[in-house]
Amino acid sequence: MEKVIAQKLKSLRFVYMALIIGVISFILFAVIINYFNGSFLVPDQIMYNTFLIVSNVFFVVGLLVAVYITKKKLSVITTDDLESKLDQYREAILTRGAILEGTTFLFVACYLMMGFHIFLIETIIGILALAFFFPTNRRIAEELKIDVRQLS
User: Fold this and answer.
1) How far is CA 74 from CA 37, 95, 98, in A?
2) pLDDT tens-digit profile of 71-91?
3) What global pTM score does this model have?
4) Contacts by 56-63 with C-beta closer than 8 Å and gap 24+?
5) Alpha-carbon distance 88 to 32, whole Å?
6) Helix axes 2-37, 118-132, angle to 10 degrees
């Protein structure tokens, strides 16, 4: 039983880490492309302001929606079986991670299109948000309302 739980936790962390690594890889490629080729567009101030506002609104709304959906999915977990709880938890957490990853990708796309470094800073903030929600034993125990020793 403990071995199955340890394996589920390991696979959850592996997939979540892949979300983070995907964003980091994309931003590294974007920086390299932008360094050698420049930005894809020749932006003016209006375009810059528009993309800056839209991308930030998407990120804030995405963050709020991700937290709301996760709380809603976690609130319907009623089973006492830890394996079932972890399966439902994985679904909720990966949904939250995917939403955050998608909004962070928008910052990378804006950087690729326009080349302004503010989008790199915002990408780093998105990566930090993903890292903040990383499924540690303590976070899992808090969100599932179980004792952290059950996960060890």
Assistant:
1) 45, 12, 16
2) 999 999 888 888 899 999 999
3) 0.90
4) 56/122, 58/103, 58/106, 59/103, 59/104, 59/106, 59/107, 59/122, 59/125, 59/126, 62/99, 62/100, 62/102, 62/103, 63/99, 63/100, 63/103, 63/129
5) 39
6) 180
Q: What share of the chain is helix, strand, coil (3-state, %, to 5)?
A: 85, 0, 15
Q: Please give the Cα distance from 107 to 117 (Å, whole number).
A: 10
**Element of type H or E holding 75:** helix 45-75
What are 103-148's pLDDT values in tens digits?
999 999 999 999 999 999 999 999 999 999 999 999 999 999 898 8
**Residue 114 and residue 29: Cα distance in Å, rounded?**
15
138 closest CA partner among 9, 4, 18: 9
Rounded Cα gap, residues 56 and 84, in angstroms: 36
